[in-house]
């Protein structure tokens, strides 16, 4: 029996004033991902010198490349900075608060490439204490995003029930399942698809750009949750506690619905 050639993979982490967290993520990736890998760390002009520190850090691995941007391009713009460099089959978009415990990248990439109709996938993510994160979602609607902000403060309410439906907690997610909103915390996308759609829409500086990217990918193929693969995600989520961030989130939501409409998804 002929052996299948190894999957060629790349990954990108965008940093902003989070040196220690990025280093933890990078080391977990390198330790758990043997063989082929191009790992890019893109620093979004961190004002605290994070980019310079990362560039000076010895990760003792030639697979790592640090890119320091001259200005803050936002989440999507930072990830798009590596588009011209990608020569992989599958590219991973990772948050700096992701920690790997096994070779998730090669496993998930192989799963994706074995299915011609699949264009993007995400593993099941967990909090550091082992609790499951309910990140796979249906296509966003204004009501769903509004309920998502109120649900944690009103357990058992109508908002909580709406959020559980939006995050697909009323479905069996113990086996691979199609989803309509893939979290930007951990995306595996066919590199040719990522290049074909032009990466992220950089008019989103922060928030909802992952929902927008998912909708663009869905024009090229299916998007899946693949729960047999897992990773740890710290998940720093507090937009309602900061007026500036909430205003930015609201502007991104308005842009998203102007672009994609408010029609409900079908998953």
Describe this structure in words.
It is a single chain. The chain is α/β, with parallel strands linked by helices and 267 residues long. The protein is built from nine helices and nine strands. The protein has helices at 19-32, 50-56, 74-80, 104-113, 142-150, 158-166, 191-196, 209-218, 243-260, and strands at 9-15, 38-43, 64-68, 90-94, 98-99, 118-126, 177-178, 186-190, 222-233. Strands 1, 2, 3, 4, 5, 6, 7, 8 and 9 form a nine-stranded mixed sheet that branches. Helix 2 links the parallel strand 2 (38-43) and strand 3 (64-68). Helix 5 (142-150) crosses helix 6 (158-166). The longest helix is centred in the C-terminal third of the chain and has 18 residues, at 243-260.
List the helices and strands and how they pair.
Blueprint: E1 9-15, H1 19-32, E2 38-43, H2 50-56, E3 64-68, H3 74-80, E4 90-94, E5 98-99, H4 104-113, E6 118-126, H5 142-150, H6 158-166, E7 177-178, E8 186-190, H7 191-196, H8 209-218, E9 222-233, H9 243-260
Parallel strand pairs: 1-2, 1-4, 2-3, 6-9
Antiparallel strand pairs: 4-8, 5-9, 6-8, 7-9
């Amino acid at each position: 029996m002929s052996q299948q050639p190894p999957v060629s993979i790349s990954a990108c982490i965008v940093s902003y004033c989070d040196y220690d967290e990025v280093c933890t993520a990078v080391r977990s990736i390198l330790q758990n991902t043997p063989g082929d890998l191009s790992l890019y760390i893109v620093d979004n002009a961190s004002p605290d010198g994070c980019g310079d520190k990362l560039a000076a850090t010895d990760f003792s691995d030639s697979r790592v490349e640090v890119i320091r941007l001259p200005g803050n391009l936002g989440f999507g713009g930072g990830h798009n900075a590596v588009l011209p460099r990608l020569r992989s089959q599958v590219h991973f978009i990772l948050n700096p608060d992701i920690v790997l415990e096994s070779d998730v990248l090669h496993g998930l990439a192989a799963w994706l490439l074995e299915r011609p109709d699949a264009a993007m996938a995400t593993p099941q993510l967990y909090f550091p204490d082992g609790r499951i994160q309910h990140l796979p979602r249906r296509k966003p609607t204004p009501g769903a995003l509004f309920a998502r902000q109120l649900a944690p403060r009103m357990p058992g309410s109508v908002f909580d029930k709406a959020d559980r439906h939006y995050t697909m907690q009323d479905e069996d997610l113990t086996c691979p399942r199609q989803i309509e909103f893939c979290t930007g915390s951990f995306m595996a996308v066919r590199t040719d698809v990522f290049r074909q759609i032009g990466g992220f829409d950089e008019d989103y500086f922060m928030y909802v750009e992952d929902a927008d990217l998912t909708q663009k990918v869905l024009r090229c193929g299916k998007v899946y949750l693949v729960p047999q693969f897992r990773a740890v995600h710290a998940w720093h989520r507090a937009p309602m506690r900061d007026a500036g961030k909430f205003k930015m989130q609201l502007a991104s939501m308005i842009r998203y619905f102007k672009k994609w409409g408010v029609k409900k998804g079908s998953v």
